[in-house]
Amino acid sequence: MTDATASGAPAAAPAKKSSLHVLDERTKRRNAGEARFRLYGAVAVCLGVLALVGLLSSILYNGLSAFRQATLSIPVTITADEVETAEAALMKTGAYRTIIGNNLSAALADAGLDPAATGVDPIDLVSGEAPATLRNWVLTHPERIGEEVQLHVLANGRIDGYYKGRVTMQTAELDGNVSPEQLRFADEMRAAGLLTVGFNWGFLTLPDASENRPEAAGLGVAILGSAYMMLVVLFLALPIGVAASIYLEEFAAKNWFTDLIEVNISNLAAVPSIVFGILGLAIFINFAGLPQSAPIVGGLVLTLMTLPTIIIATRASLKAVPPSIRDAALGVGASKMQAVFHHVLPLAAPGILTGTIIGLAQALGETAPLLLIGMVAFVREYPAGPPEGLFDPASALPVQVYNWTQRADPAFVERASGAIIVLLIFLFLMNLLAIFLRRRFERRW
Amino acid sequence: MNDMRPLERIVDTETVKISARKCQVFYGDTHAIKDVDVDILDKTVTAFIGPSGCGKSTFLRCLNRMNDTIDVARVEGEIKIDDEDIYDTKVDPVQLRAKVGMVFQKPNPFPKSIYDNVAYGPKIHGLARNKAELDEIVEKALRRGAIWDEVKDRLSEPGTGLSGGQQQRLCIARAVATEPEVLLMDEPCSALDPIATAQVEELMDELRQSYSVVIVTHSMQQAARVSQRTAFFHLGYLVEYDETGTIFTNPKDPRTESYITGRIG
């Protein structure tokens, strides 16, 4: 339409010769259109970047503090008699709590602090996890009973929150679990060197903890569970996916049946992940009798989910290998299989690896199917080493995030955001690996 | 047209290497090759000429069963090499292709080293017992491909890094490394400049000493320069097949004459 009107314009003024220095109407309109399109593009990119920055900064703001932790270091002397009495007690951890309390009071007296004057019971500043920490230490180091040792125990979640800005004097007034006096006394202990704030290794190594001990909750079991599942997915999905795609792409006859398979694989890639969870529950747990909450079941379900991704990526990279390479190999008398394995597959390998890693990354972040097969359970025991550990109950990173966001204590918001950061770091590393492999092995011809 | 000296060409031998009888090729419903009868001689360069789409490449690809790789292609009739039917069910196309080498239109070296390009065929056919023998085979093949002097110092460099003409000669060296008896060339010079073309043509004449060479070409001058016998294809039919001199100077069929003089094609 615009062409017709524009071409009519010169006819209206035939005497005027067009100059290269004066833009005609049509060019002006076209340039304006191009400028507008570039603006739309820039706006779209900016919106995307803004959303990403907003998301990341919110997660980092909430979650970075999860990597810091207030810890009390108490010199503890525990005698064989005390251990015997504590082990004989009905509430063993209660007895150990008393031992810690006594040692802490002694340490405070040495440092010249007087908790009684402020009306604070110093044991309230210690995490509920501490007696178990002491007991585990005693059981694993029986030979050191009677010596004086430095015991590092976690500070109570509220005290920890005070040093991260989550708990303030004002909120402590209203909080039944902590008082401003306790916070002030914690400051005194910090000044005396009894309380330190440092990097929180426990967040990466400890198992999950109960509702009222957020300071002790860690990702250890979830990271292990996720790693086991990724192993299962890698060892099942990669060989099955690559073999299936090579067969479909290079060997299978092209007929209605292979077309049907191809359409179904594409459809499978679009099936909602929760459907795979139901499938896994029905087949692997109810029918095959595999244990619930086990990484093996999670891995199998995620394998089913990842297979289409790997098959599609592999077929695309096999298709991208120029047919002249196949001709060349067949021309010197290579068999079909030799042509594929000696020439086509090495050229397709970077694409296959990239597809596989992207599939794995997708599987790593998948939550819904794991909820259905019981990975959402509260697991405190580390799974054993592989392969037996594959059948032990474990958690998974995204499920741990889901779990923590449901808990009441605001300290778990921080933990959940911290877990998201860990998950994102893993995803980032995997994508980095994919890019590296593609750059490293990509060959041009 | 100094190169055009067809009358000087002498056919050294009358031994038939490849014979085709009533050969038909179908691509799905398309009848691409119709009733082709031809006897290709040993130690001779035979050129297939004809306009685009006349079926000359298709027929060439029948001779080493490369058409098998196309799902819809179907070959009928009889093609014999040394009196053995190559479409017999007992024939393994892999063995056949070791015997009938092929050079393609576009140079297609493997994205591997020059050495590995040439060594690949001998390796998969078990022609060398050790590294020394393989080295010898590679050197011999590269010398026959007239590229040895240019690449002998950089055998470990990728074959894809060579120039177009060098790549094509590397592909020829790769094809002769398996000691074939017949060498098929599908427009081997169409991607090359005149100098590289001259080198490849010279090479064809040398290769004729040991092999039966069949070349598909769009260039009538090239056919006249390198071949002893020429076959003219038109619309899937083999119109005329004779000594190159006869075809270019005294064609019997009016269609051949029209094509040669530039009236069709």
Write the layout of secondary structure elements.
The complex is a heterodimer of chains A (445) and B (265).
Chain A: H1 2-12, H2 25-63, E1 68-77, H3 80-88, H4 92-110, H5 115-118, H6 130-140, E2 148-154, H7 157-162, H8 169-174, H9 180-191, E3 195-199, H10 202-205, H11 220-251, H12 256-269, H13 273-287, H14 295-320, H15 323-331, H16 336-364, H17 368-372, H18 397-405, H19 411-441
Helix pairs in contact in A: 2-19, 3-4, 4-6, 11-14, 11-16, 11-18, 12-14, 13-14, 14-16, 15-16, 16-19, 18-19
Chain B: E1 16-27, E2 30-41, E3 45-49, H1 56-62, E4 73-81, E5 84-85, H2 93-99, E6 100-103, H3 114-124, H4 131-144, H5 148-151, H6 164-176, E7 182-186, H7 194-207, E8 212-216, H8 220-226, E9 229-234, E10 237-243, H9 244-249, H10 254-260
Parallel strand pairs in B: 3-8, 3-9, 6-7, 7-8
Antiparallel strand pairs in B: 1-2, 1-4, 4-5, 9-10
Keywords:
heterodimer, A: 3-stranded antiparallel β-sheet, 19 helices, 5% strand, disordered N terminus, B: 265 residues, alpha/beta, 6-stranded mixed β-sheet
